[in-house]
Amino acid sequence: MLMPHPLRRGAAIVGSGESDEIGFIEGKSSLELHAEAVSNAVEDAGVRWEEIDGIFATGGSGRFPAAALAEYLGIRPRYMDSTQMGGSSFLFFVHHALAAIAGGEIEVAVISHGECGFSGPRRGGRGTGGAHQFDPWDPGELYERLYGAWGAPAFYAHAMNRYMHRFGATREDFARIAVVTREWATLNPRAVMHSKQTHPYGGPIDVETVLGSRMIAWPLSLLDCCLVTDHGAAVVLTTPERARSLRHRPVWIEGAGEALSHMNMSQMEDFTATSARDSAARAYSMAGMGPGEMEMAMIYDSFTYTAAVTAEMLGLTPRGEGASLWAGDDARPGGRFPVNTNGGGLSFSHSGMYGMMLLVEAQRQLARSAVGLPGRQVEARSAVVNGTGGSLSTTATLVLTAD
Asked: How many angstroms separate the CA atoms of 20 and 232, rounded?
């Protein structure tokens, strides 16, 4: 008989929060978005500020995000982590915080993100603070930028094009992902694309609307691409013992895994598969569960292609049929397998690194604190959550369960 993994249920997510405003915000820094989110998450969890001894943060806070946030909040943690793995960073943080809590290093961890993805460039925050460091042997220089390949839409379009060629998928297949995700957004008043009142192009869409939207990088049209917004979000993790004494039902971390397949897109072995296959296998193994036992999914959707190929890697659909998860009624509101119940990066919000919002939504659903929000009071007791970073490069997967 196999022994349970030593990290399984070694910590629980006990609260979550977002910045007071999301979307298109003028006049707030990324640190302010961080601080608002952390404050709301701490209040939601019911922990005391002086209990926080671990800070895990990245996004828009200079070279040392965790240190900058701790200073801003007046916290002196004994454990800090600013791992930067793009949009998957925050699920990496859960894995790291789980290990730190289970190992007795800390008792209360805050994972936070704040990013002015929309307003930052308009305020002059375009650069990284230093000159471009040219390395003539960097594959990105040799095989990508030299030929004009630059930016996420161009890279993801290459991968989607290859996938369509190999498996016979169509743009219509991917467009349905955007349509279903928008359906969830129309039930979430906080979603940027909730309605015409929240955004001129908000409200319901259909496949023809997606296909007819402005072409960005063939075969990706505008509505195949995520939003670019300002957003802050945070979650609180703690020990199993402390978790049971707090306000919400604990959301247990049953499994966690992380993986990397490449950094530069030109080094990606197979454009039709990602490292989520490995991170998911590790998370399922730790949890002692499999994809057939999952009842809900929060999947990074920087592009419709990201969501589709990840569904396959998580074992939720057969190979080459990733978009089929959204083809019928299963992933829709009221369906048997809800996906991205807040409206996703495609229609809820996406500041540049979306993984934090996946965590917040998963916690709210499984802790039942989302009850009362139209369309989102699902009864799922398990969820698989997957973040993707870089150019389909880094992935982290969590298996979470309700108490």
From this structure: 8
| Location of structure tokens 């994972």 | 111
Residue among 147, 92, 104 nearest 11 (CA)? 104
Distance CA 341, CA 190 (A): 12
With vertex at residue 280, the alpha carbon angle to CA 275 and CA 283, rounded to the nearest 5 degrees, is: 135
For domain 12-121+227-401, which architecture applies?
Answer: 3-Layer(aba) Sandwich (3.40)
Residue for token pair 């023809």: 208
Nearest to 303 by CA among 237, 379, 210: 210
CB 112 within 8 A of CB 82: no
Could you tell me if 271 and 308 are in contact, meaning their C-beta atoms sit under 8 angstroms apart? no
Residue 303 DSSP symbol? B
Strand partners, 259: 395
- Between CA 255 and CA 149 the distance in angstroms is 36
In this structure, are residues 305 and 163 in contact, taking their beta carbons and an 8 Å threshold? Answer: yes
Distance in angstroms (rounded) separating the CA atoms of residues 284 and 362: 17
As given in the structure block, the two tokens for residue 158 are: 């290459």
- Which helix (H) or strand (E) segment holds residue 157: the answer is helix 152-167
pLDDT tens for each residue of the chain, 403 residues long: 567 899 999 999 999 999 999 999 988 999 999 999 999 999 999 999 999 999 999 987 667 899 999 999 999 999 999 999 999 999 999 999 999 999 999 999 999 999 999 998 877 654 433 444 556 666 766 666 656 666 899 999 999 999 999 999 999 999 999 999 999 999 999 999 999 999 999 999 999 999 999 999 999 999 999 999 999 999 999 999 999 999 999 999 999 999 999 988 888 999 999 999 999 999 999 999 999 999 999 999 999 999 999 999 999 999 999 999 999 999 999 899 999 999 999 999 999 999 999 999 999 999 998 766 665 667 899 999 999 999 999 999 999 999 9
Q: In a 10 Å sphere around its CB, with 0-12 CB exposed, 13-18 middle and 19+ buried, how is residue 143 labelled?
A: middle
Residue owning tokens 């604190």: 369
Q: Tokens for 276? A: 């989520």
